[in-house]
Amino acid sequence: MWFEISLGALLVVFVVASYLRGKENYGEDGDNGEENIIVTYSKTIPGYEVKRIFGYIEASVVIPEDEDIHALGEQAVIQKLMDKAREVGANAILELTVSIKEHKVHTKLIARGLAVRV
Asked: Is the whole model's pTM more than 0.90, yes or no?
């Protein structure tokens, strides 16, 4: 449990730092061809107002039994979710959840979140 919380907090800090760095490098509108995505477990982002809701999106990755699911798998599934958010025109994902389904020969990670534009 503590590992998931600390990993989640680290992810939020990383994504927000990337977003802010992107604004420094490309101006206020973030027009760099590939907009950074804010990802959070909460329903709101302090200092931002939700302007448009695109709906819930989902991404998954399958990891073979012998690989470390927590380090690479969670990062990969969240990256896929961020790519899907970009495709629909969102620049933030709220209410992020990552679930793990273990099978005999592999593990499946599923990330879900609410794609929005702030």
From this structure: no
